[in-house]
Every structure is written in C-alpha cells, then in structure tokens.
Amino acid sequence: MRYVQLRAFHYVATQGGFSRAAEALSLTQPAISDQVRKLETEYDVLLFNRQKKQVSLTDFGKKLLEITHRMFDIEHQAHELLSESRALGSAKLRIIADSVQHLHPVLGPFRQQFPEVFISVSTGNTPEIIEKLCSYEADVGVLGEIPESRDFDIVKLSSTPIIAFASKRSSAGKLKSISLEELVTKPLVLREKGSKTRQKLEQIAAAAGLTLKPSIEAVGREAIREIVASGAGIGIVSEAEFGYDERLCKIPISGCKPLMDEALICLKERSKGNLVSAFMEMAHDRISLKRA
To answer: 3-state DSSP helix/strand/coil percent for the chain, to nearest 5?
Structure first.
C-alpha cells in the first residue's frame, strides 16, 4: 500500500468520480484509475461500485474513507504547523451554522484581525452540522444544542427563549402572548424534524400532555419566515434568531420558559489547527467579555 494509492482513492471518493479526482490532483484519469485498481488488487477488496459513468463507494470503501478523512486532515494539520511562521492570509475557514445571527459577536472582529482569510458560511440543521464536521467538510459549527459527545471542543454562545411569531396582519398578530395549550390549536408552520428548536418545544409540549402538529412543514428559516408572513400560520423560533421583519411580530409563550442553547463547536482533533483555534479562542474571549 502506497500513499499515492490512498490519495487516489480518497480523491475519487470525495470528488465523486475518477475524472474529477484526476482534475483535482492535476493527473490523468488513467493514472488515478491505475492507483485505485492496484490498491484493490493488492488487498483483494472492492472499494467502488462502477456502473457506466457513475461511481459509488462500497461498504468497505465507506469504512476506508472514514480513515483517510482523518489521515489527510492530520496531514493538513501538519502542513499548518510547519507553515506557522506564515500569516494566515492564504487559509480558508469553513463554517456551518443553524443560524448566522449567532456568528455576529465573533465574525466581524475575526475578519478585522485576519482580513486575508477566506471564510465560507453554509447553513444546516443540527444533524447536518455534526455530519459535516465529522466528515471534515466543515471546520467549525454553530448549533442549537450543546453536544454531549466528548469529541468536540465547545464554546457556549447564549441561551435564549423560544418564541412564537406571526404576521402582523393575521388574527394571531394581535396576541400579546400565547400558552402552549393555545399554540397547539393554531395552524403551525414548523421546520423539518431535524430542527432542534422544533424538537425542544415538542418535548416540552409532550411533558405537558400536548402534541405539536404542523399544518405546514418547510426546510429552512427563510422558508418558514415567508410562509408565516403570508398569514398561513404561526411559526416558532429562538428569539435571538428572530431578527427584524416589519411584516412579523413576536408572541411570547406563556406558562413556560423554553430555552435554546447555542454553541460553537469543532472536533477536538482539529482544535489545535492555527485557524480553528484562533476562531474558537476569539469566540471564547468575546463571549466572556460580553458576560463580564
């Protein structure tokens, strides 16, 4: 087994095909195919299902990919360490967040200190964030739950109440507050089942012997916001993520205080990398300063 064989396998798996892997590595497709074939032949295993022009990992290939993800991430960390004397200017930080509002305290100051760092921000729910971090497709995550796993370094950002919200033009928009008992009787516009805000309120309702049933289910906060703004129902959201929209109004939930914890997390094994540690440390310092 040679490094080039594992690298060829890893790039085919992560790039989605032999031609894309060849392009990413600046090699020819026959060279990539030959390295993967030699690896399969040497160990008498099948790493990819090859059907016409489509390539997919076998179960064995998926297990090997988990290992090569760690292998090449460690290689990347070694490169960072060896390049420590250089500025972070050429680096890239990949962030995935359930809501970008929670990045406000740290993103601006971080950009000021490291203006040449390229930052990419994507969104997802909690399971998607965990998956992206564990598959090394993201460096830092922001999510509405503090993970119990010991695999993560964690900076707690905030705890904010869950509120309902409605269109100002709707009858619900005139409410000063709403109880859980009233809420479950209203047409609810809820996010997909992976949403921790939804899950938290469902758990609280269940403990009170109530069932939260959506009239409309949609993926993503923007979709929920637009549907609620149309007057089609009542939404729920962490108050910190409500933001400002002149079409909508907040409705506090009375009789209970459901709170959402927001946390900034990264894999422990990646927390020593220059860029990730700089971002996590700045977040910790900014939040500590805010609470002082």
So the answer is: 45, 25, 30
